[in-house]
Amino acid sequence: MKWSQTFIPTLKETPSDAEVESHKLMIRSGMIRKLSAGIYSYLPLGTKILNKVTTIIREEMDKSGAIELSLPALQPLTLLELSGRIDAFGDDLLSMKDRHKKGIALSPTHEEVITDLVKNEVSSYKQLPLILYQIQTKFRDEARPRFGVLRSKEFLMKDAYSFDTDDDSLNNSYQKMYDTYCRIFERCKLDFLAVEADTGAMGGDVSHEFMVPNENGEDVIAKCRSCDYSANREKAEPSPIESDDNVTPDDPKEVSTPNMTTIKEVSNFLGIESNKMVKTLIYTYDNKHVAVLVRGDHDVNEAKLSKVLSSDEIALANEETVVELTNAPVGFAGPIGLKTQIIADQAVTVLKNCVVGGNKADTHIMNVNPDKDFKIDRAADIRFVTENDRCPKCNDVLDISNGIELGHVFKLGTRYSDSLGAKFLDKNGKERPIVMGSYGIGVNRILAATIEKSHDSNGIIWPLPLAPYEVLIVPINFKDETIMDTATKIYDELCDAGIDTLLDDRDQRPGFKFKDADLIGIPIRITVGKRLKETGELEIKLRSKEEVYYAKPENILTEIVKHMDSLR
RNA sequence: CAGAAUAUAGUUCAGAUGGCUAGAACGUACGCCCUGGGAGCGUAAGGUCACAGGUUCGAGUCCUGUUAUUCUGACCA
User: Which of A360, A424, A457, A481 has its CA 20 to 30 A from that of A543?
Assistant: First the structure.
């Protein structure tokens, strides 16, 4: 492609509404433009890169035995009502009425659609297992789109769904997709991590997220420093904390803590570390109340609590309820004398001489000891891990960091086949629900994550497999016939050899072209300039390296092929 | 959804206390010059000052409302 013939509007200035580096560079390099908040157009350069990624995904999915299809972007609300997910999506669902006043939605995902399709067409175990996938736009009305294409209202997703006869077969499909994902991300040159994840509103039991560690990522991952344990924040479990047997329990003592309702205030006032304090929170679930105890420096993980209580509808109790149950204003709740059920985090059970709320205004109680001074009905892991926690597998240090979620795989089980009635007849002629799995990849996020980790102050550094063009030819002087002729000749030669080449045939000064070249980040640059006249050589420079190599025009193809091999 | 900020040329921004024909840089067009890191000179085009009301002799500037965008948090299959 000749630069003058395509459409790559680069920008010298940083757009004012871009915050993270990948977003800035995607706009500056002419890959994308914003149409509206969280809605982006992909320009030719961005589209080419997107196509490189989808090609890799297709090749690997096809190799795994998955079959591509194409589902509609529109779906009737009735399907989401059947699966019960209309509430789970809530305001994130973009829905409307068609002319017949029928409710339809722009699909946020396709579990229901594919299950409905398969239920009508698959009726025998002989048709299973089956893995179907598509690469398609998804719509979610994000409350707060941000970071460019990392969180947008419309995004490209590769979603796959597996259909199996039983759990063993599902495990097989799941492993196949897991391995395929690893290969896809490896081919994209990403340093990814597969972490244990919570299944959230998706349902199912086992789930892994494919993450790229990055400070701008919205997810939090915990990773063990020495063993292979890693999990996302919702799921990560701390190693149990051991009790300190050297401390002798003292007798409880009431202290006045006027107007001090937060852990920090009480901790500062009493001069006691927050990890020697107990946070008592009243939760409501299924019309019942429960007191939840975590250490002062810990936070309740509602996903875990929800599982412990076996309830989907848990929430902090309102103020009146707290006052009624504790006989005190909010901020002074404590476990002593409470009539409700008490659930404590494991870390609370081993505390000695700790501080709790007094269930009385402006009062806390010191030197409190669990079991001795109050009863714990149930101890469990109900908190988020922190940097001070240890690995549950090997007890070494857990590192907590942010990550960008690129892929997510779920063992769904029969959640959707049950609610939508997708059944098959097994060998014995017995009707059974199809066992399903679901597997997603955020295609746009692969671009953003790649740029996040692969750029410098001048612009993007594309890895060869994703680069919009593999080679960029920069003739230094548009008006010099020798230079332009040579540039055009090697351009034709590289194109004929099947190398994706861009020729910067614009009448611009060299500095201008070099800046653009660095900005859009083509991996290999050939400069045709004064050296051609002096020694008859061309210059080859890799975007990722400082060195410059020289080659005669007649050897350029072999030289380029050599460099391309080194980049693969 | 809560809190906050912003909205002026294609882009990035200036435009105290209200005052004449709304500016700069970059970009764009044309000309000159130049051709190894966004060089220089000149000329020109380019504006519903987000929108709607209001106060005022007079509003880009003050007030009210609306909308949009961004940030922080909540939420997030």
Answer: A481
The answer to whether residue A525 scores a pLDDT higher than 70 is yes
**What is the third-level CATH fold of A253-380?**
YbaK protein (3.90.960)
CA of A510 to C1' of B29 (A): 22
Q: Which nucleotide is nearest to A88 (CA to C1')?
A: B77
Give A313's pLDDT tier (boundaries 50, 70, 90): confident
Q: How far is the CA of A87 from the C1' of B70 (A)?
A: 29
- Dump pLDDT digits (tens) for A210-261: 999 998 899 999 999 999 999 998 899 999 999 888 888 999 999 999 888 8
Strand ranges for A371-434 from DSSP E: 378-380, 398-413, 423-425, 431-433
Q: Return the closest nucleotide (C1') to the Cα of A442.
A: B77
Interval A425-466: pLDDT, tens: 999 999 999 999 999 999 999 999 999 999 999 999 999 999
- Which residue type occupies A323? V
> Where do the structural domains in chain A lie, given as residue ranges?
46-73+108-236+400-451, 253-380, 469-567
Q: Find and list the nucleotides of strand B having atoms within 7 Å of a protein beta carbon.
A: 1-2, 11-13, 26-27, 34-39, 68-77
Q: Which nucleotide is nearest to A537 (CA to C1')?
A: B36
ipTM of the complex: 0.94
Contact A333, A369 (CB under 8 A): no
Across A263-276, average pLDDT: 88
* Ordered DSSP codes for A540-562: EEETT-S-EEEE-GGGHHHHHHH
C-beta separation of A39 from A152 below 8 A: yes
Determine the Cα–Cα distance for residues A17 and A28; give it in Å rounded to an integer: 12
Distance (Å) of CA A220 to CA A197, A272, A277, A389, A404: 11, 29, 25, 15, 9
Between A197-201, A271-275, A358-362, the lowest mean confidence (pLDDT) is in A197-201
Cα-based angle A505, A50, A448 (whole degrees, multiple of 5): 100
DSSP state of A249: P
* Assigned architecture for domain A469-567: 3-Layer(aba) Sandwich (3.40)
- The C-alpha angle with vertex A505 and arms to A504 and A506, in degrees rounded to 5, equals 95
Interatomic CA–C1' length for residue A408 and nucleotide B60, angstroms: 50
Superfamily of domain A46-73+108-236+400-451: Bira Bifunctional Protein; Domain 2 (3.30.930.10)
Distance in Å from B46's C1' to A17's CA comes to 23
Q: In the prediction, which pLDDT does A203 show? A: 62
